[in-house]
Design goal:
alpha/beta, six-stranded mixed beta sheet, 11 helices, 2 domains, Rossmann fold, single chain
Length: about 375
């Protein structure tokens, strides 16, 4: 009898410990009589800026939707530390807690792991930022709002050609699917355009000291850098130490870099769907609301997450879904039909007239932000 009571006590204690953990990891937690939106992302570690921005952007969208009345939502994001294993484990936790639709994973590697599990359950997910093709390729219920990696690589090559730079360089992370995916598309497009350039690379084991690569690229007029802002800031500073006058040109992973290179005088450009300095009414209203809520300016990841939640809400409305008790599988089929319909489009913070095909890709026009 004592052993039985002890087991019951341990079980109750474990459940009690799990509930605050779910709330503490990010979001407001799943609530009754709401559509439950789940996600995983890096809330700690080197990529925590991305996960935190997605969490806050999604939370703000849920707040605005719920304040309007009508259909209600709740949101929960768990920390995957940008890792596929943690993303898979967190997916199971969220599914067990009642997740009905999702923002998927924040980064590409974890996003792919999350999306594969979601697809098996027919749970609809739209990632705000997982840009690698494997996050959506062959996965019916996995969509994205951000640009795909190949799109960014080809666009970068076109921009470099338009700039008529004499000496071009490129450096990428060979160990990262996001970076290498963009780079391969860039490489192919540069070959098509007949532009030669100096190629350098690094990997997960060597991403702190960029002395060798900076030395090799120091005479370039522009350096293409399809990788995340943390490593990018380190390379840029090292290149500046080598007296480089290059324009540093990145992709959407550069969001968050401005504060890290505030003392750099070189021009820094990057591809993004969102510019917080825009004077467009909807962007300005979002920026003001975000600053009021979190005390800082939102980045692209926050805007992407806000848009995803709003797109999901719009698709639910189009599909006429109002029953909170529907299973993820039923909702998944209804969302797929609504979002891929010819008459469905969305005007958001990160693009106007955004549309989606059955391949899960989003069609919208990019922006290029310039620092310095």
């Amino acid at each position: 009898m004592k052993k039985t009571l002890a087991k019951i006590f341990c079980l109750v204690l474990a459940v009690c410990m799990l509930v605050p953990c779910l709330t503490a990891c990010g979001g407001d937690g799943f609530k009754a009589d709401t559509f439950k939106i789940g996600a995983t992302g890096p809330l700690t570690g080197e990529a925590a800026s991305y996960g935190t921005s997605v969490k806050q952007g999604a939370q703000l969208a849920v707040k605005h939707l719920n304040e309007k009345g009508g259909v209600q939502f709740s949101f929960q994001i768990l920390d995957d530390k940008a890792g596929a294993e943690d993303a898979g484990t967190n997916y199971d936790t969220l599914a067990d807690a009642g997740m009905q639709l999702s923002l998927g994973g924040v980064t590409s590697g974890s996003g792919e792991a999350f999306a594969k599990k979601a697809n098996a359950d027919k749970l609809f997910c739209m990632t705000p930022s997982g840009s690698a093709d494997p996050v959506i390729t062959g996965l019916k219920y996995s969509f994205r709002l951000c640009f795909g990696d190949p799109d960014q690589g080809a666009l970068a090559a076109e921009e470099i050609k338009a700039g008529n730079f004499a000496k071009v360089g490129a450096i990428y992370d060979a160990s990262d699917s996001y970076s290498s995916g963009i780079y391969e598309a860039f490489k192919t497009k540069m070959a098509d355009l007949g532009i030669e350039y100096n190629e350098q690379k690094f990997d997960a084991e060597n991403k702190v000291d960029f002395s060798t690569q900076a030395e090799a690229l120091k005479d370039c007029d522009i350096i293409f850098m399809p990788f995340y802002y943390t490593e990018a800031s380190l390379f840029i500073k090292k290149a500046v130490e080598k007296s480089s006058d290059a324009v540093f040109f990145g992709c959407d992973g550069f969001d968050g870099i401005a504060e890290l290179v505030a003392d750099v005088e070189n021009t820094i450009k990057y591809i993004t769907p969102f510019d917080a300095a825009s004077t467009e009414a909807n962007v300005k209203a979002f920026v003001d609301a975000y600053k009021a809520e979190y005390g800082k300016t939102p980045d692209q990841f926050a805007a992407d997450a806000y848009d995803v939640v709003m797109v999901l809400a719009a698709a639910l409305e189009k599909a006429g879904v109002t029953d909170y008790t529907l299973t993820a599988e039923v909702i998944g089929d209804k969302l797929f039909e609504a979002i891929t319909a010819a008459d469905f489009s969305y005007d958001g913070l990160t693009g106007n007239d955004m549309t989606w095909g059955e391949d899960g890709k989003c069609t919208k026009a990019p922006k290029i932000v310039t620092l310095g």
